[in-house]
Structure formats: structure tokens, C-alpha cells
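name: query_chain
kind: protein
chains: 1
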Amino acid sequence: MEADDLSTLIKYWKRSIKIMEQGNTKTKNSVPDDELTSKANVWSAAFNTINDAILILDSKQCVVQANRTSEVLFQLPVAEMIGKSCWEVVKCNNDRIKGCPCLRSEKSHARENMELNHNDGWLQVIVDPILESNGHYDGAVHIYRDITTSRQTEKALRESEYKYHALFEKMLNGCALHEIICDENGKPVDYRFLDVNPAFESITGFKADVLIGKTALEIFPDTDPFLIETYGRVAITGEPVSFDFVSKYTGHHFVITAYQPEERQFACIFESITEKDQAEEELKKSEEKYKEIVEGTDDLIIQVDHSGKITFANYMANKIFGLPQEDIIGMHISKCIHPDDKDRTRRLVDESVEKNATGLTFENRQVSVTGEIRHLLWTSNFHYDSHGNLVDVTSIARDITMRRKMEEELKRAHDVLEQRVGERTQELQKVNEDLQDKTKSLEELNTALKILLERREIDKEENSEKILLNVKELLIPYVNKLKNGPLSESQRNYIGLVESGLQEIVSPFAQRLTSRYMHITPRELQVGNFVKDGRTSKEIADILNTTERTIVAHRANLRKKLGLDKKSNLRTYLLSLQKP
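structure:
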């Protein structure tokens, strides 16, 4: 029963009750008591069988009647509800609910409704005012409908729609929804885009706002008729299909799956296998390259199962084992190991497997069927299952026979060299002993020479002192006597030169200057002595009977030999040499 019908029924029922309460007052339009009672009983029965909870309120919002469903919903008998306010019954407290529809209905004189959270569920509350004939508010009819299930359903539907939308939007495959378009004979002739996801936009290069609402022939005028026919069959019959298709617009290769979501509609999922094709092509190239590397390498490459039987071998196996390929596959790996190396090789492999090691590097010798012995350097990788059991072993072996021969030759050469070095060392030791004896003799001779040189220096100093003493004692006194005698001017000059020369011999200045600068000439020594005494270049030239220009040249040579720059004073430097 709808709420409008229910409200009308209750209003009529309430007026009938009022008439019955007023007694048996007769009017010309009065309805007989029995008839009123009968109708009231019918309406009361209908009132109590309704699945919605109903409260009838007076003008003060107090309950005057309630049906049986309200007892179940509010967990109160009808008798306890009578006289209580509606909010006390519904909320079981002493306060109105916020936005009470009863108050709003009293003001608006119209139907008001709201949704109310009640006991972990939800109620739809519908309030219809009961108005007297003069329009005055006389109460209200409260209808409470349990919408918990419907809200849960709506929530589940929203979540489902959200998940569908998220899947639709985020899926990597292109997806599009269409409706089929048929001619007057029911033959599919076109289809219209209803929705597309971003992946479909990326695949086609068309945005959704361009596609949605347009037909395939509007967007792609030369659409393959095969597609229209196939999609039409899916939309009409509901039979899904899946097929390969290469787009002539983009060159992409797709697996298209089409199904019917609703009558005369079809949805398509486009799985691009272009990258898969490219990957397969790359894999094929990689396999060819791998095969070329494996077969072209000079290393032996084999794979053996957990029992030691060879399951794969490259062409180098034929060269090393001396057997054809068909005889190598299935052969036990130990067959061609040198007898002296079998136990050690087996022990190394068993220890590695016992430790669940993933790799092992070792050397051993292989003996071909023709008896040729080769030294191999092995690098093995062990593969295990989830329980730690050995599955197979992949090994790469490098032929190091030549290296081993070279090492042996090198060792023999090294031994010979060691022997020769030993012999040469003994010879050098003998020579060294002889040199030590000679060195000792030279040291003794050197000591004697040193003593002689020291004696010579002492004698030299003694001779110098004797010469200086003789000059002072024997020569200078006679020079002084000559100076005091009658001499001409030129004779006096010559005597002055002799005296000056003798003074230079015995002076500390001359000794220091000549001892420090052995390359100074006697004439430069004379000029330096005059400069020291403060004589000018002209005066020195007159004394030495030469030109002033020559004296200037001697002074320049002195400065150069003494290492003096232009700013240094020659006389000052020469005076410093005179100081003890």
C-alpha cells in the first residue's frame, strides 16, 4: 500500500473514531453505528497488517495509535507508546531529532520526510499532516519504513559501479560499449559508440568526446564490413566472439573479444598483441643470437641432469670428447674424465650440492675417445627446486691445455734460470769479496793521501807566514829608506807602486779577496785596492799610467766577478772584506 493511500485511510479512520466518540447524535447525513463500526474494524485490520510502522499523533505530537509493525520496530508494546511523544518512541530519549519532519509538516501543512539512522539501520520517515475541515492542524500520520536493506543494496550497487568504472578506466586493454544499428530488414549496417575507456582512446588516437554518440562509419568511413557483421551478430544473438584483427589505421595487432551486456548492445575488449608480436620477434632474434654465441664460442657448454647425464652440448663437445652429438646426449659426464681426476671432481661436486651452493669453479683433465688429454677450467651453476633438490647443472669449460703446456715450459725455464742465477750469484759474491779487499787497500791509501794533503796545507800556511814576515821585516824597511832619499817624481811614483804592492801582499784585504775570488787578475786586484782607498778612476789611471776608460772597464769586471748589482756600492763591499 502506498503512503498516499495509507494516509487517506488513516485520516478517514480517525474521523470515524471521532464520530463514534461523539455518541449516537443523529443527523440527516449520519452513517448508522453498525456500518461505522464495521468500516472502522476493516480499516483497523488493514492498519495492523501493513509492513511499515505507523504512529498516529495528536496536535501535540503525542502517540494516539500505533500498529503492530511499530511494536516490532521500536521494541515497545502499543499500550506503552500511547501518550509518548514521537521522538521518545523513536529515539528513546527526551529530545527531538534534528530537522524533525513532524514540526516541519505542522508548519508547512504538507508532507515532509527524512532518512533516520536507527539502531544500526536506516528508516525512511514520512509525515503527513491531519488537517481539520477549516485547515487547522490536528495531528499527523508518521510512517516509518525500514530502508536498511535498500540502502545496503544501493551502497553495494554504488561500490560495484565504482569498481566497474575504476576497472573500466584503469584497465590496460581498450574497452568500448556500442549499440548496433540495423536497416529496415534488421541487418546490421553500423554501430554507435556509447562509452570508451582511456586505453581505447590511446589505441585509436580519438578522444571520448569525439567518439561517444558518433557511429563507426562517421568516424571510420571505410570500416571493415566484417566488423559490423560480427558485432551485429553478438548484439542480436548474445553469442560472444573472440578474433584477431589488424587495424589498417594504426597497424596494431589486436585480439578482440566482443560480448552482449544488454540487448542490441555489444562491448569490445581490445588486447594489443603488437608488443607481444614484437617481443616474440625479439625472442626469436635473441634465440638465434644465443645459438650463434653458444655454437660459435671456443668454450665447451653442456647441461647435465641431476643424475649426471648430458642433456645439452654445443659443438665443442664433439671436438673435446671426440664423439658425435647423438652419442654425447645421454652420456654420463664422468665417462671422459681422466681416471686420476674422477674422485676429486666427484668430491667437489658432491660437497657443493650438499651445501646447496649455486656455483663451482675447478679444473680437471678430459680424455677423448682417441686418447687425447685436455686440461679444462670448469665454471658450473647448480639449479635446485623449491625443496632444495638438484634439478640440473649448466657448465662452461675452457680448454687451457696450451696454457698448461706454456706454464710447464715456463716452469722449466724458470728452474734453469734459477740455477744460472745461483751460479752467477756465487760468481758475484767472489767478485764482491775481491772488491772489498781492493776497497780496503784504497781506503788505506786514501787515508795516507789525506794525511799528506793536510801536511801540505800546514806547510803552505807556514810558508805564507814566512813570506809575509820576510816582506815586512826585510823589504818594507828598505822601501821606506828609499822613499826618504833624494828621488825624482817618477822614481817616487815607482817607489809608491812597489810599496803599495807590498802592502797588498801583506794586507788581510788582498788575502781575503784572492782567497774568495781566485779568478780576479792582479791588475783588477790593484784597481780594487785603490777603489777601497777612495781613489777616483782618473787618479788610479794616472798612478797606473793607463787611461781612465781602462780603469772603468776594470771596475765593471770587478763588480761582475763579485756578483754586485747596479745598486750596490763597490767601495763599501771592498771595505767589508778588510774587516777581520
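note: The chain is about 55% helix and 20% strand.
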